[in-house]
């Protein structure tokens, strides 16, 4: 369980955080994720003049909406836990210096499969705590009685060793098309998640939710949804309103999230890495445009509604049929009906 996490305001990438943590938390088979926090006091959700808070969902609509994506990927119907696990083995009686660090590649391995730490009893007949696909020697406190680790392969994972991922690839522990350390490409062992660090993209493809993180000019394609970000970096997602696959759901939440910042907020530079002044309401939306295409539409008819951040319908949005049977529309944050981050897709009888 992770009892506190947050992607704090005014970080302009915070809309991406819930999808990433929800997806990879599910891949790791974690049991619980707890956002810190909903609100510091009643005033932050009872009044509409508050802008001075890093953490609260109650005063940050873009982060609050983004959590719908993270929850859909984390819960049942979302990302399946990785079938294999790789563990760092430690001796339960070893003296480990407080400033010891794991090899950075161990965390990157967690983008592909389950990872963790297993502590072994210091006895001659101690079994390996679990049947792991591979075990890692972190260069410290590796158990003397774990030479074979129940026949699992042992890999060098000392902090300064730079070939761990390549060693796992060469040994066949990771499929060749699931990892490219040079470009920062990582595909999860079940194929549902892809992260590309060089492009700054991410995608999660599950039955009940599909989500993309796309800089301007980048595209992604799932089974139900395809998208291209035309203007601005965006999080684009489809979330089934019921516990059903997207292709069967009667109502679907479509999201096109950019950013919000307070009026008159002041930063030290255009990179917005240092906040000098909180600013004040109203919150301003960051412009964004994208083409969103529905792929799994055979035999189904849909109506699309632009909605505000409370879910109220603002306008009906035309869906344009494609020659290949798809339906598409242009998502724009700024519309005649107001600022739009979300859409309700309604399946018609």
Write the layout of secondary structure elements.
Elements: E1 2-5, H1 17-27, E2 33-35, H2 43-46, H3 61-74, E3 85-91, H4 104-109, E4 114-120, E5 134-137, E6 153-156, H5 164-170, E7 179-180, E8 185-187, E9 193-196, E10 201-205, E11 209-214, E12 219-221, E13 225-231, E14 234-240, E15 251-257, E16 260-263, E17 266-267, E18 275-277, E19 280-285, E20 289-294, E21 301-307, E22 313-317, E23 320-321, E24 327-332, E25 334-335, E26 338-339, E27 342-348
Parallel strand pairs: 1-2, 3-4, 3-5, 5-6
Antiparallel strand pairs: 7-8, 8-9, 9-10, 10-11, 11-14, 12-13, 13-20, 14-15, 15-27, 16-19, 17-18, 20-24, 21-22, 21-27, 23-24, 25-26
Helix pairs in contact: 1-3
Give a verbal description of the structure.
This protein is mostly beta strands and 349 residues long. Helix content is 12%, strand content 36%. The strands form seven sheets. The protein has a ten-stranded antiparallel sheet with strand order 7-8-9-10-11-14-15-27-21-22, with helices on one face. A five-stranded antiparallel sheet has the order 12-13-20-24-23, with no helix packed on it. The chain has a four-stranded parallel sheet with strand order 4-3-5-6.
Helical content (DSSP H or I, runs of 4+): 10-25%
Q: Largest sheet, order of strands side by side?
A: 7-8-9-10-11-14-15-27-21-22
Q: Would you identify the regions where 5 or more consecutive residues have pLDDT less than 50? A: none
- What is the CA-based Rg, rounded? 23 Å
Strand content: 35-45%
Mean pLDDT: 94
Distance between the termini: 42 Å
Topology, number of strands: 27
- Summarize the biggest pleated sheet: 10 strands, antiparallel
How would the global form be characterised?
A: globular
Query: SS-based structural class?
Result: mainly beta
> What is the number of helices?
5
